[in-house]
Predict the structure.
Amino acid sequence: MAEAALFIGWGSPIPGRESKGLEVFNEALAFHGDRQQAGEIESFEVAFLAPHGGELSGFILVRGSEDQIDALMRREDFQRINTRAAMVVEGFGVVPAALGEALGQQISIYQEAIAEMERATA
């Protein structure tokens, strides 16, 4: 089961770059599909969001082990696709995330921070 993920989110296309945006999106789908087939990631999922007044239009959630996600982020071809994506859509971002059993560690860190803040304000 995946313990790590990458949340790759984007907003609206930059006006005049819609076609290029679709091209880069299709390249990203092929890239992640190839990584999954090669066993370099566990899986990935794509979501388009309904109009909601917010800045996020869609995302890809890439799942894998921490080592798989770390290796993916270091790949030059991954970085190239992301650089190109940032040039064709607003609000593009790639954010590491914890999943599954790794959530316990993140919750523990959060609880420690709460306790520290409570001590500082007491």
Observations:
- The two ends are 41 Å apart (CA to CA).
- The chain has one domain: 4-121.
- The first strand starts at residue 4 and ends at 10.
